[in-house]
């Protein structure tokens, strides 16, 4: 039986998340530690970390220790009409750590739903993302937005490419001052200014989003209706209390085409979960299928919720030289079977912190 007391918070998360994903029909995906470097160079903007560890294979190919799992899954996924592939993974990736700013081996868990996906599949993935955070900590929030809606709204404003890039950056930074500056310079019209200003707001419900963007350009309505449909399902599942509609999280419209989301846990300053629908990435990699998924960044959970004990062991046992080895082992088995950590020493090590010190003789345990 697994003793959860000896597991760190990130290790506990792996087991609970694996169980959650299997319940919804996701199968385990296993991959090699490395891929051809070219796979990551072609999609560098999609990666979280710029740094990639490379080496030359025996046949001269330039390989990379994988900084990402999603790209490998897409590369190997079948592209068959009517087929849906549901996969989860628990893999080590190699990235520059946010804490140490050096390369680090990081355990990452997540899932991908690839194929002829529809609105149900998107809602299911969002639901599993929310439940993933809930299984880790009850104090969490998930920001959601729709990349297609943001793109359509900005495109409807008839802006130059340079101004579009500036506007998107301003939305990400929630900088109304920058948008106002562009308006005052004449780079964006009044109607465009009104729409873009609304994208900087944070919304509490789908009704507020409907009121804000209903009646806009016809090209926007399809994206708006899809997003409102996802929000409606979330409301029926009683998830909206943990969701926050915030369009500033849309940071890559070149890859993401629909729903996007980021998850946060109280006490951790950065997102611990990120995902969305990335049909544009699929198309860029030569696939006709759609895809939606997310990753949980377990490195962010390493210290979260891990109680710092005042001691290294529950029991330190000083063994008498006359004590038979079999008796010592039976004693350790007896104590550790109750979940206690036990170390046997011939003499006390002053560097060890312990809760209880005992002495073991051939007559049994005694207080030291």
What does this structure look like?
It is a single chain. The chain has helices at 9-23, 37-41, 70-76, 119-136, 147-155, 161-172, 176-185, 190-199, 206-213, 218-236, 279-284, 325-336, and strands spanning 27-28, 34-36, 54-56, 62-65, 84-96, 103-115, 140-146, 202-203, 243-246, 259-265, 273-277, 290-297, 313-319, 342-345, 354-361, 364-367. With 368 residues, it is α+β, with helices and mostly antiparallel strands. It is elongated, with a radius of gyration of 26 Å. A hairpin with a 2-residue loop joins strand 15 and strand 16 (364-367). It is built from twelve helices and 16 strands. 36% of the residues lie in helices and 26% in strands.
Brief sketch in words of this structure:
The protein has 368 residues and is of the alpha+beta class.
Number of helices: 12
- How would a textbook summarize the main sheet? 9 strands, mixed
**Percentage of residues in helical conformation:** 25-40%
Order of SSEs, N→C?
A: HEEHEEHEEHEHHHHEHHEEEHEEHEEE
DSSP strand (E) fraction? 25-35%
How far apart are the first and last residues' alpha carbons, in Å? 32 Å
The overall pLDDT, averaged over residues, is 86
- Total E-strand runs: 16
Give me the Rg, rounded: 26 Å
- Give, in spatial order, the strands making up the sheet with the most strands: 1-5-6-12-11-10-7-9-8
**What would the principal axes of the Cα set say about the shape?**
elongated
List low-confidence stretches.
none
What structural class is derived from the secondary structure elements?
Answer: alpha+beta
């Amino acid at each position: 039986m697994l003793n959860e007391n000896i597991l760190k918070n990130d290790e506990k998360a792996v087991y609970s998340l694996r169980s959650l994903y299997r319940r919804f029909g996701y199968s385990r995906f296993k991959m090699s530690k490395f891929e051809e470097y070219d796979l990551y160079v072609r999609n560098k903007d999609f990666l979280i970390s710029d740094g990639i560890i490379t080496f030359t294979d025996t046949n001269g190919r330039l390989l990379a220790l994988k900084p990402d799992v999603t790209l490998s899954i897409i590369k190997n996924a079948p592209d068959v009409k009517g087929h849906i592939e549901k996969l989860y993974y628990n893999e080590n990736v190699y990235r520059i750590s946010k804490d140490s700013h050096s390369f680090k081996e990081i355990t990452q868990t997540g899932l991908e739903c690839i194929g002829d996906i529809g609105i149900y599949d998107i809602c299911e993935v969002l639901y599993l993302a929310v439940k993933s955070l809930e299984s880790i900590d009850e104090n969490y929030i998930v920001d959601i937005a729709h990349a297609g809606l943001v793109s359509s709204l900005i495109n409807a404003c008839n802006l130059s490419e340079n101004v579009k890039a500036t506007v998107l950056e301003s939305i990400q930074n929630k900088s109304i001052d920058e948008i106002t500056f562009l308006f005052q310079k004449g780079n964006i019209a009044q109607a465009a200014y009104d729409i873009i200003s609304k994208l900087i707001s944070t919304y509490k419900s789908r009704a507020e989003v409907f009121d804000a963007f209903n009646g806009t350009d016809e090209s926007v309505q399809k994206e708006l209706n899809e997003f409102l449909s996802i929000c409606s399902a979330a409301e029926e599942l009683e998830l909206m209390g943990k969701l926050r509609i915030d369009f500033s999280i849309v940071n890559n419209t070149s890859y993401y085409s629909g729903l996007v989301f980021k998850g946060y846990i109280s006490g951790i300053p950065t997102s611990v979960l990120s995902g969305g629908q990335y049909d544009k990435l699929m198309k860029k990699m030569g696939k006709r299928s759609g895809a939606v998924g997310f990753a949980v960044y377990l490195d962010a959970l390493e210290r979260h919720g891990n109680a710092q004990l005042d001691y290294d062991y529950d029991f330190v046992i000083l063994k008498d030289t006359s004590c038979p080895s079999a008796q010592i082992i039976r004693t350790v088995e007896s104590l550790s079977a109750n979940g206690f950590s036990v170390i046997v020493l011939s003499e006390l090590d002053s560097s060890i912190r312990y809760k209880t010190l005992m002495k073991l003789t051939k007559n049994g345990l005694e207080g030291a």
